[in-house]
């Protein structure tokens, strides 16, 4: 029950680095003619901000050490990137251009985890 | 390159916010994604299989049996893999199925014996792939005989070293595998042809095919013609064409291209 009068909490427009769901349905792109199984591919991907190494909220304290740290960050150094940190394989059953049937295991196809690196 | 097949530039366009309206960026995105997928498969262009392309049930069973993509709760028929390939198959990251070239068949039905030559075209196997095992799967159809008890057939599998110089002569062959089977059963038989197939993939000029010899039982209630139907080695031995596509002999190779983990333990590889 939302309390009367309280402004709804503003959703943080910038989401931190995390894994986002993304499913490619092979029939949507016409690949189900040659990819027999699976019917689609849970691709996932990593996206989001990397406030690493110092989060902005740290700047809200006037403690000398914190202020020194926050103000000594060299803004020319590029920020960390939001990249996959854990991966897993998938098996695909498909027909090649000679109409031969192949069952193959592909490494590092599913993003299991993301992180700032 | 395989990580996340979705090209960076367009990922967020295809997530929660739904599809972009600009047709052009859709096509660019899909083309980029397709090129990545094809290059990962080692394919130069998108395959366009004909309607007559057949996916053997055994390959589907292997996929469902071991793939983590599949809902393991669904009970499916389980093909029986040949014991001799299990170990090598557990290390393979590529499994290929081949049907023989019917144009090169050489069926001969002598008294008490049926022989058939099979040629499998392995040129689609990339040179960097090492074949560690191969099985020739042959289907047997139950023979009903008045006596009720099934007769015993001997199935011999030979590698053809040198084709017969003339039709009256015998080819030069080497025995690869043999089995005594009772014709009152219907099932797939798996024969170990790994030593020959591994060499053919490396040196295709050695590939003169496989000769299958079926010796039929002398004393049996079934007619000679019925006996010939037991081991499915030729389309012409059977009236119903429909079953041939799924009952024809299948060569299955187990190989590794040096990348990634085995197919048959994908779920165990998950990190």
Computed structural class of chain A: mainly beta
How much of the sequence of chain B is in beta strands? 15-25%
Q: What is the molecular shape of chain B? A: elongated
Strands in their spatial order, largest beta sheet of chain B:
2-3-8-5-6
Radius of gyration of chain A: 22 Å
Mean pLDDT of chain B: 80
Distance between the termini of chain B: 19 Å
**Assembly context of the chains:** heterodimer
Structural class by sheet pairing and helices of chain B: alpha+beta
Helix and strand pattern of chain A: EEEEEHEE
Offer a concise description of the structure.
The complex is a heterodimer of chains A (117) and B (271). By secondary structure, chain A is mostly beta strands.
How would you characterize this protein structure?
The complex is a heterodimer of chains A (about 120) and B (about 270). Chain A is mainly beta and about 120 residues long. Chain A has one helix spanning about 65-70, and strands at about 20, 25, 35, 40, 45, 80-95, 100-115. In chain A, strand 6 (about 80-95) and strand 7 (about 100-115) form a beta hairpin. Chain A starts with 17 loop residues before the first strand and ends with a strand. Chain B is α+β, with helices and mostly antiparallel strands and about 270 residues long. Chain B has helices at about 25-40, 55-65, 85-90, 195-200, 225-230, 245, 265-270; strands at about 95-100, 110, 115-120, 130-140, 150-160, 170-180, 185-190, 210-215, 250-255. A five-stranded antiparallel sheet of chain B has the order 2-3-8-5-6, with no helix packed on it. In chain B, strands 1-9-4-7 form a four-stranded antiparallel sheet, with helices on both faces. In chain B, strand 2 and strand 3 (about 115-120) form a beta hairpin. At the A-B interface, strand 5, strand 6 and strand 7 of A face helix 1, helix 2 and strand 1 of B.
